[in-house]
Structure formats: structure tokens, C-alpha cells
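[User] Once you have settled down, look closely at the record that follows, and write a paragraph about the fold.
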Amino acid sequence: MLQGVKRRYTLSVDLGFSMRQTVFLCPMGSIMCGMTAPHASASDIPPLLGLHAYEASARHLSFVAAGAELHLSPSAISQRVRSLEAHLEVALFERRPRSLRLTDAGQAYLPAVRDSFEELAAATSGLFGSVGASSLTLRVQVSYATTWLAGRLPDFMATFPHINLRMISAIWADTLLPSEIDLEIRQGNGSWPGYRATKMHDDYAVMVYGPGYLDEHGPTLERNSLRDKPRVQVLGFDDLWRHFFDDAGTTTDSPTPMTVDTSLAAIEIVSTSSLWAILPERFTRQSVRDGRLFAAPGDPVLMRQAHYLLRPDNAAPLSGPAVAFSRWLNDQDEADPPLVVPS
């Protein structure tokens, strides 16, 4: 047993051919590794070069583009794909005069192959952190980065000291090419043309007010008392009023003397004025704990927007650092539970 280990991350690497490797990543780089013996014959293992060529060709739907990415000729890519198809005894592509199209089998096989490459990259990063890519560029919306993510990043850096992290806010979206972004976190409905979106967290809305509201109106014992008081409206969250107050039989919106485009701006305004706001609980969590904001009584409301991890449809499989970050991010919800707002 390793001494001084504060945390353990487990990466189970499923290579798609009955072999599973488990890597234990510890904060200071200590590693334990165990591999179960494969119970498949060598003939069951797909050719790795063929898998690599197939995955790149499937993303680009072009042997020419796949060859350019892998620094091979189109004919070499085609030959490797045919070798894989012969091994699997199934066609993965429909070959057309000027393009490729995935067959049903090729489409079904792609997620497993892509996941296997990402798992292998994560295990390699965990075992040999200084080998290969050790940087990660992340693009995040300002409110998410400032109110929730930034304070947790020192933990990520301590857990994965070999990864150099660069976080760019959406304000600087035009300063980098899409190919320069490893991961992007967005809040929305999960549908962005040209991107694969993986849900990271659901979001719940709460009603919050600040010390200025408390001084002017006194403590809020039930949330209906807020509905006729002036509030800050955040663009994109217009539907939340109805979810909070429809059950009270009201059809009249509260006065909204101010509208802003970020939750971060709304938090700062509410904390220094007598206005109140409906905001994602995740963004208000630390301010409520610090006493800058107060949450009105009542159950939080599930928002139609959630936070998603985005990758372009034609992006290469995630690097080891990117897989490590996405798994670490998933663990943060367990480490930091939401506010408990009394009814």
C-alpha cells in the first residue's frame, strides 16, 4: 500500500478485445498498476494500425484527409482499413467515387474504437505523464469558470502535476482556432451543430437576494414574497419565473429594472443592492456559503439548460490529459454537494 496517498483515480482501459487494465493515479505521481491476463487469442485482436486508420477515416470520411492527419498516403490508409475489414469480416465503409460513407457496422463500431483510444491515452498519461502531450487547453463560459470551476483547479493541478492547463474564457473565443481547443464547456440544451456534447451536470435554479434586500425588506420566509420586488433578469433564463411562480396563480412578472447577460454580473449586482435574481444554484453556491447572498426558501427548480463537455464532430480522440480532466470534473459534484435550501 502506498503511503501518503490522499486520493486515488481509477482508469479502466477497455481496449475492445477482452483485456482490461486498471491504473491508480495518486496526487504526487505514485502509481499502482494491475492488468488481468487477456483471455482472447491473438487472432481476436484487431490490427492497431487498421483501427487508427479507420478512426481517422471515419471522422473525415476521406482517406485523403485521414492520410494527411496520419502522415500517410491515401492508398496506405485504404490498405490498412481493408486489412481491418478483412480481420472483422465486415465492410466498415461504402466507397464512393469522391467520398466515403460509414456502413451500419462502421457507424456502430466507431464509438467503441474512439473510447478505446481515449482510455489508452488516459492510461499512458497516468503511467508516463511526461511522455507525449502534457498540455490541456480548455474554453469555458465566464460565469462557470469564475463562480465554480476556478476555485477547484488547484486540486486538479495537484492531482495531475504533469498537465499544463490553459483556461480560456468564451470572451476570447476568436483568439484560438477550434483545433487549438481540447475541451469546451457550455451551458445549453445539448444540441450544437458540428459538436459532440456529453452532459456533465444538470443545473437547478434558486432565488437569491443580498444584504441590501435584507436591510430593506427583512428576511424572506417564503419565496412568494419576492415576486413583486424588483429583480435582475439574466438573458436566457426568462422561463424560470414561470416555473417558480405558476403554482402561486400569478401571471404578473416582477419588475425587472436591470437585465444582464451573465450570471456573474447578476451575482455582483444582487450582492450589492436590494435586487434579487433567479440563478443557477451551482453559480451561487459559494456566495451563499460566504454570506454574500441568501437563498430563498423552497425547492430548487430543474433548469432546461445543463452543462456539457463539447468536442467537434471531426476531432481526434481525447488526449490523456483531456480524459483525466473530464473524469476529475465528474468527481467534483460528489466532492461539493449543492446547497440545501429549507422549504
